[in-house]
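B., you asked whether I could sanity-check this one before it goes into the benchmark set. Here's the sequence:
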Amino acid sequence: MKYRLIIFDMDGTILDTLEDLTDSTNYALSVNGFKERSIDEVRSFVGNGIHKLIERAVPEGTDEAVVEKVFEDFVPYYKEHCAVKTKPYDGITEVIKYLREKGFITAVVSNKAHFAVQDLCRDYFPDMFDMAIGEHEGIRRKPYPDSVEEVINKFGVSKEETIYIGDSEVDIQTAVNSGIDKICVEWGFREHDFLAEHGGENFAVTPDDILKFIDECEN
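And here's what the prediction gave me:
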C-alpha cells in the first residue's frame, strides 16, 4: 500500500468543536469585562492553538497581562466544558474504523491543548487512534512539523507513506513543512476557495472521499 500512516487534525476535521470553543471563549471574555464574540468570529480565530485563539478574541491592543488573565480563565473552563456540544462529523467515525480494519496506522496531531485531545479521543473515538498529540510544552505547534515527525518516528514509517488530513491553511502548511501528502476537508472551519488559495490540492467533500482518494492511490 502507498500509505501506512493516516494523520488527522482534530477541530474541524474529525470533531465539530466550534460551539464549545465559542462558549468557553465568551465565558473568559465576559468575566473579564469584554464583549463576546460570534461563532463566525471564533471560527476565524481557531487553528493556531488556544493561546492564539484568546489573543485574537480580545480587543486589539489589549495589555499582555490582561490577555494572560483571559487565557487563564479560559483553560479550566474549557477543560470542564470541551465536550458539551462537541460531536464527530457525520461519517468520520466509520471512515476511521474502516481504515483501522484495513491495517492503517491512525493518529491525531492537533494544536488543541494536549489534555483536550486526549480526553476527546477517549470519549468520542475509543481505541481508534494509535497516537494523539496536542499542544504541549517542549514542542512547536503546527505548522511546524515537530508533532507530525514525532508520530512518523514513533511508528518507523516514511514520509512517502504518510498523509495528513485537515481543514485549514495551518494544516496545509503543516503537511508542506513535513514533506507529506495532504487532503483538505470541506466540512470544517475553512471554505474550499480559501483552502485552494492557500495551497490545497486534494479535497474531500464528505468523509467517504478520504477513502476514495486513498484507494485511488493504492491502484
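One thing to flag: The chain has two domains: 5-16+88-218, 18-81. Otherwise nothing jumped out at me.
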